[in-house]
Amino acid sequence: MTDTGTNIAKGLEGVLFTESKLTFINGAEGILMHLGIPIQEWAEKSTFEELSLALLDGELPTAEELARFDADLRANRAIPDQLVQIIRDMPKGIHPMQALRTAVSYLGLLDPQAEEITPEARRAISIRLIAQFSTVIAAINRAQEGQEIIAPRADLTHAGNYLYMLTGKEPTPEQARLFDIALVLHADHGMNASTFTAIATGSTLSDMYSCMTSAIGALKGPLHGGANEAVMDMLDEIGTLDKAEAYITKKLDNKEKIMGVGHRVYKNFDPRSRVLRDYAEHVATKEGKSDYYQILEAIEKIIVDRIGSKGIYPNVDFYSGTVYSDLGIKKEYFTPIFALARISGWCASVMEYARDNRLLRPDAVYTGAKDAHYVEIQDRK
Ligand code: ACO
């Protein structure tokens, strides 16, 4: 530790530690791009599979490359029976992120290539991880609810297969596409805490499973994943549309935070929340607007009118909970779903940093004593 310098970047805010070609964010203007392509275009024209491959390889794939990657994902969906049994035997009532952390770590024990850190090995492991995260999370969800674990199907898309493994029913094309878009929107988001954690672990030349297990631990905390769960709690508390205005107005008058609005980076609409709102509205209009959705619309209007001028707008978590809930996903699983999408960004970021690796080792200003001496234990007060 150093004793010089007072410019501490608390929370590493504004600290640049590497270069990346994956994701660009302009919070003031509400812009998010992957490989220079706006998130709106990824959501409209692409799929989670394609964005995952583009992030891993740093470029848009050809049709042939995408077909091969998609086939690899489908072929790698199944998880070993030994892990299925571990998931069945996990204590009931645990946090699903605890279960995911243990399952992914265990998955590493069963992968003979786990300890290899060449670029080729990291890429091959990333494909298996992206494919198997989905199976592991669905299996945890069902096992925790005392239901039979459902094996993956190779004839469904990545998003469609997850919903199938979760519910046992094949989703409609609209449901599968809506979930796919939610995965696209969450696949990467620059140097957030979990991505940084994955990179920090990778910078020690540790293996991919350790990187992902570290990242899951970082995402588990309520300051990172978990805000969309809080939005659902708020909606449950409000209950019905007629109570929304009074509830939000009272909170704002009392200077309390409204969940799902505001963002450290975005001081305008979070572009992901716009995309999600539009698709959620499409499905809601087709299948009838859920009460949750109507309450959110009412809250958004009040927020924009009252505190939009402070740069506080709905963030991605504002609508994602309702979308997930309408798809049959319970709120305890919102953070694992975040991981299900972000695994692509984690793997891609670890691989990108590894190309020009330097051990991450920041410093702190030492503010402790310098003139102390060891005191024998019996002489201490
Ligand atoms: N509800 C009401 N007012 C808010 C909110 C909110 N959610 N967020 C900020 N404000 C107000 C503040 O009270 C402050 O008002 P003031 O100037 O009158 O004192 C002003 O807006 C600026 O707020 P800051 O706290 O400086 O904004 P900051 O960038 O630090 O906060 C944060 C960002 C932590 C995300 C905050 O907006 C928040 O707690 N939001 C709710 C939780 C949430 O949705 N988190 C998910 C973020 S997205 C993600 O992680 C994927």
TrEMBL record:
- A Pfam family: Citrate_synt
Signal peptide position in this chain? none
- What SUPFAM superfamilies does this protein's entry cite? Citrate synthase
Q: Which InterPro entries is this protein grouped with?
A: 2-MeCitrate/Citrate_synth_II, Citrate_synth-like_lrg_a-sub, Citrate_synth-like_sm_a-sub, Citrate_synthase, Citrate_synthase_AS, Citrate_synthase_bac-typ, Citrate_synthase_sf
Kindly give the Gene3D superfamilies that the UniProt entry links to this protein: Citrate Synthase, domain 1, Cytochrome P450-Terp, domain 2
Q: In which pathway does it act?
A: Carbohydrate metabolism; tricarboxylic acid cycle
Alphabetized UniProt keyword annotations: Transferase, Tricarboxylic acid cycle
Family membership noted in the UniProt record: Belongs to the citrate synthase family.
PANTHER family recorded: CITRATE SYNTHASE (PTHR11739), CITRATE SYNTHASE, PEROXISOMAL (PTHR11739:SF4)
> What is this protein's name?
Citrate synthase
